[in-house]
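Suppose you are handed a protein chain with no further information: no name, no annotation, nothing but its sequence. What can you learn? This example shows the usual starting point.
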Amino acid sequence: MNIGIVGTGYVGLVSGTCFSEMGINVTCIDIDKKKIDGLNSGIVPIYEPGLEALVKKNVADGRLHFTTSLPDCIADQDAVFIAVGTPPGEDGSADLHYVLDVASTFGKYIKKYTLLITKSTVPVGTAIKVRAAVEKELKKRKADIPFDVASNPEFLKEGAAIKDFMSPDRVVVGVESLKARKIMEKIYRPFQLSNYRIIWMDIMSAEMTKYAANSMLATRISFMNEIARLCEITGADVENVRAGMASDTRIGNKFLFPGCGYGGSCFPKDVKALIRTGAENGYKMRVIQAVEDVNAEQKKIVFQKLQKAFKNKLNGKTIAMWGLAFKPETDDMREAPSIVTANLLVKAGAKVKVYDPIAMPESKRVYLKDIVTYCDNMFDAVKDADALALVTEWKEFRLPNLDKVKKLMRGKIVVDGRDIFVPDEMRAAGFDYYAIGRK
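A reasonable first move is to predict its three-dimensional structure. Written in structure tokens, the prediction is:
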């Protein structure tokens, strides 16, 4: 079976690689020639545990291919996945022009029945626009070539994407014809040994499911961050509250950890897009709007705690930051709380020294560039620092040599933006310890 995947970003590259690992002949297409040349040379443009080895293996085995031209390879494909970006516009709506460009190209060049599947995260009703774009091009060609559209949103967690793809909780597929369903069944047949569920539905429901799922998870995070703030005010301990909540089987323990806000490529964008979709349809998404508002404020909390610890006198202070990526096991800094924290500190006159195991090249390239000092390791970052701020909970930060940290630092203030340290241990080690929602 031959499938094409347009877009070699996070979703497209992971999906294409995993499909090829299961024996499907996959061609990944991207207009970025430099990226494609790199992939053909074994250079993977994103960090994801296990991905580079799988890419090299399947390229060597002849099942995974990379090209810049969809027209050149479309005639051989049984199905084409759209996995291009849908960045938020200024009003929060998803920018669909990349998606619709693929649909137009598809319509210009298909020669036989082919299934066009949207894997990009798109608003409800996008499939209608995709079909219209294909039909417009077929009409120009005066070509009566059958095709179908389908929706197959992704639910991958960065840092665990390979495992998620190979052994998913569920696969959501929206189709509108029996032929399209049979093709999707064949594509996912190799994964059925894992006994996962395919959830079949109409296309609009599949499109909505993606936004609803991500927004629900974002809601849990913002809810816990609100509870954590109230715990601090009242004297409760959010760790005890979290444990009590998680023991209720109706609630469970996932996404109940307070911190300095969510980031990444999905939650911020999808929450904004769902708010915008509601507005476009005359409905105000009040809960989801509150989720976004709380998160925007929560990203300032590490700075606010440092500001309080130094009695609003941050000018001239040196602050060490552990972590830049929005979460561990990725180099993704999109919407990361570290960006807000660093910029607020610099604006307040502080010098910021940072260390992240993976994300520093990405930070230098796009996000913080030269406004911070990049350090070779976690201990280099804390040397002569007046305070330490933990922003990303990488494993190597979880049980540091506290005696060494204390000796290297000039000050003794630690702000734990992810609640990974034990308060009593930190205080016993001689630190002035500030956490999120802890006593």
